[in-house]
Design a protein that fits this description.
Layout (H helix, E strand, L loop, with lengths): L1 H40 L4 H25 L2
Length: about 70
């Protein structure tokens, strides 16, 4: 019984870390794309702001999808 408890705890910890990672990765990808486009088109800071907001929104969408899929 103790081993099953540990597996359940490990699964929950991995699931929670995937939620945090999902938000951070999406935000940084959006930020990176925005910074890159600002360098290419010399439009600093407009693409950075827009794509950062898109990345944050995508991160929260990922969290929503994960919670809906695995329950909470």
């Amino acid at each position: 019984m103790g081993e099953d408890n540990n597996r359940g705890l490990l699964k929950r910890m991995l699931w929670m870390s995937s939620i945090g990672t999902s938000l951070v990765v999406a935000t940084f990808v959006g930020l990176y794309i925005g910074v890159y486009l600002d360098r290419v088109f010399s439009t600093k800071p407009w693409f950075t702001i827009v794509f950062l907001l898109i990345g944050i929104a995508a991160g929260f969408r990922n969290i929503y999808v994960l919670i809906k899929k695995y329950g909470f």
